[in-house]
Every structure is written in C-alpha cells, then in structure tokens.
Amino acid sequence: MAEYKNVIYEKKEHVAIITNNNPERLNALSLGLKQDIDNAMMEAANDTDVRAIIWTGAGRAFSAGANMGGRGDEGQGASDPSLQGLVGNVIAAEDYREWGLKWQVAITKPIIGAINGYALGRGFEYALHSDMLIASEKAIFGAPEIRHGTIAATRLPFFVSPQWSKRIILTGDHVSAETALRIGLVIDVVPHEELMDAAFKLAKRFTYIPPYAIRFNKRMIDGTLEAMGMNSALAHSSMVDAIGHATQREQELIRITDGVDLKKIQQEQGVRAYIHARDEPFGPSPHL
After folding, report:
1. How many CA atoms lie within 13 A of 207 on its CB side?
2. Most buried in the list 55, 108, 169, 278, measured by CB within 10 Å?
3. Environment class of residue 5 by beta-carbon count within 10 Å: exposed (0-12), middle (13-18) or buried (19+)?
4. Other C-beta atoms lying within 10 Å of the C-beta of residue 138
C-alpha cells in the first residue's frame, strides 16, 4: 500500500476508503491533492482485493474547489512559463478531459462519494465522478465560479434534470443536502455522524456481488451514458473553459459584471475580498 501526503488510504473488508486530507484548506484541489487522489484511485482500481471504493473528505469539506491561489497548479501548461495563455489552458483542459476518461475506463469498481460538507466548484465536479453520492445533512453543493464566467459541472445533467442543472450552474447558488436528495443529485441524506457507516454499509453490499458482474454491469451503464454524449460534453466544455480562462484578461465581457472586475479585486485585495465581491450580491447561502 502506497503512502500519500494529501489523502488517507485505508482498506477494510474489500472496501478502499480514500479521504481528501487537507482540512485546513477545506481540501482545496492543489496539484498534490489531485495527484494523490488519482494515484489512490488507481491503487484501488488495480487491487484485486478491493471491490468498492468510498471517497470522502476530512474536516468541513469534501473539497471547496480549486486552489484559489490561482491556476498555477492546475495543469501542465500553466506550470510552464512558455505555455501561458491559450496554449497552456488548452493543454490543461486536455489533461482534465483525459483524466475523466481514464477514470471511466480504468476504475471498474463502484465509487461511493460520501459528501461530508462543502462540495463546491471543481470539488463539486470531482464529486460527480463518483458513481453515486451519499450526503451528510451538513453537505452543501454548488458551482459559485460561474459568477466570474467559467464553465462547471459538465456531468451534472447526467445526475439531475436539465432544468435543475441550469438552475444550479447558471446562478452558482448553493444546494442543501435535502434539496440534493429531492432532485436526485444524491441517493440518501444521513445524520453527519452516520455518514461513513451508511457509505460502508452500501459498499459492503457491492462486495457480495461477483466482481466481474459488478464490472460488466457498471460498464454497460457507463456505455449508455457515453452514447448519450457524456464524453463529448466533457471534451466540449473543457475547450470552452480553456478559451474563457485564456481570454479573460483581454475580454472585459468575460470578467466584468456591472462594472465589478473580480480579477482585479483578487489581484489587488486578495482572495477573501474577491470571494466577498463575487458572492455578496447573492446573499447568504445555501439558497436552495
């Protein structure tokens, strides 16, 4: 079993438990955390003793989203000074798309996302790469980054209706655990202290099924989603996201709303001021 700096990897009764473990930063998706998540998932995928995977977070969040220090650790292109701008963002988008496709093929065991708290922005997108979600009553979902012009949660329409996808994505409003259950985003909501027990109870049911039956039936369902256009949607939205991030400096329409330049606020006043300016017009959350 490998050792990780940013996740906790445990194995119990044929179930792998992967915990995002940077609670001080609400499990923001630094490069190190993303790499450890990917490596831990691949370890579980390749371990013949593992038949189901539980994925959760330490502290108050599953993941509060991307590293708000900037996009400097989000992709190969962004880390290379010679590949800034459109080229670097396209490379990062391609990396993200390839990562999503790899998980879909390589991870043949069911992934249960046990959402313990905030699952926001890119953290929300990551959670949607689970096969099913169970939420603590304290869980909150959302894509607030839409408020500065990005594209989020391509997979959301494959969990909930197109109407609810647009309601969530086009406002950035937070979604409570109860609403998430009502709209089909999660399969169950449980008291916070019972979350891991509930996730493990479900995971154990999968371990009683012959592993190849699980593998083939999961693949059939995923194949149906692919036929419905899930992978094409991921490829398209990744490119739109890359273009949007690459051109926001030159295109005021992308970064300025009603005279408020959020990027300038972030650069001059810091992340806290930026988040306040972005979210203050919407009032307290969760809204839904």
Report:
1. 20
2. 55
3. exposed
4. 17
259: phi > 0 → left, psi -120 to 50 → alpha, else beta; which? left
Kind and range of the H or E run holding 233: helix 230-247
189 DSSP β-pair partners: 135
CATH for the stretch 7-282: 3.90.226.10
Query: How does strand 256-257 pair with strand 188-190?
Result: unpaired
Per-residue pLDDT of 135-180, as tens digits, reads 999 999 998 877 655 556 678 999 999 999 999 988 889 999 999 9
Closest CA to 133 of 209, 185, 196: 185
Using an 8 Å Cβ cutoff, are 60 and 25 in contact?
A: no
Q: How distant, in Å, are the alpha carbons of 2, 14, 108, 203, 212 from that of 47? A: 12, 10, 11, 16, 14
pLDDT band at residue 86 under the 50/70/90 scheme:
confident
Task: Look up residue 221 and give its amino acid.
Answer: I
Task: Give residue 71's pLDDT.
Answer: 44
Best mean pLDDT range from 96-105, 194-203, 235-244? 194-203
Q: What is the 3-state secondary structure (H, E, C) of 169-232?
A: HCCCCCEEHHHHHHCCCCCEEECHHHHHHHHHHHHHHHHCCCHHHHHHHHHHHHHHHHHCCHHH
Q: How far apart are the first and last CA of the chain?
A: 41
Instruction: Count Cα neighbours of 103 within 13 Å in the Cβ-side half-sphere.
Output: 20
pTM comes to 0.88
Between 88 and 129, the higher pLDDT residue: 129
DSSP string of 38-49, one letter each residue: HHHHHHHHH-TT
pLDDT value, residue 77: 41
